[in-house]
């Protein structure tokens, strides 16, 4: 895999009412629709800011026809979106009627809201990237050393920050190279040794590769889990899993066709 092969393409979440979710993200985060896939049993819609970077990640909403509720679990934490001013952005959302969940007064420098299905969305202050663009996705891990090693060895990610408290630590992993606007992975490790439930409200992360067969072969040589190989997915994509079972889709996306520079 080359340096450009490692950028995260999207994060998928499942929603119980597609139109309600689309309206929420369009109204409050100014997202636009980039693509839609209508299958017999489900619909996938990819969204993001209109002026997002080519290195930016999209949000994929999956609606399984006739399914309105999901278990959130705790193995996935949240997605985070970028703004220039957290307090101003949070006040804007409150004025629009978004539920007051965790205001910046309680968390200096960041805040949280929830979408209609209860997925947590952190608001973080950044001096780069389009407003509301995806900054990171947080997942909880049971062994920090193993998790950091997974992203370093399998995907060639590099440490991009850490924050350690009395009871937990956050470790950020980012693709190599000049990908300032790329979405990173936040690994949260709680020191008490707890285990996590995956639930089904969250689906997967997706990482881009230049060539699906070559990228998959590299992952297998690095001993990533052979979950759904390219052949079983008609050579359109593939799936592996991290050490805790979080699914990671392997995709080849034509970035220039879906986002602006």
Features:
7-stranded mixed β-sheet, 261 residues, 18% helix
Helix content: 10-25%
Number of strands: 14
Principal-axis shape equals globular
Number of helices: 5
Spatial arrangement of strands, main beta sheet: 2-3-4-1-12-14-13
Structural class: alpha/beta
Average pLDDT for all residues? 94
> Radius of gyration, rounded?
18 Å
> Termini distance?
23 Å
**Are there runs of 5+ residues with pLDDT below 50, and where?**
none
List the helices and strands in order: EHEEEEHEEEHEEEEHEEH
Fraction in beta strands = 35-45%
What does the main sheet amount to?
7 strands, mixed
Overview of the structural elements:
The protein is α/β, with parallel strands linked by helices. Helix content is 18%, strand content 36%. The chain has helices at 18-29, 86-95, 144-155, 212-221, 255-258; strands spanning 8-14, 31-38, 42-49, 58-64, 76-83, 110-114, 120-125, 134-141, 158-164, 168-174, 184-190, 202-208, 238-241, 247-251. The strands form 2 sheets. It has a 7-stranded mixed β-sheet with strand order 2-3-4-1-12-14-13. The protein has a 7-stranded mixed β-sheet with strand order 6-7-5-8-11-10-9. The mean pLDDT is 94.
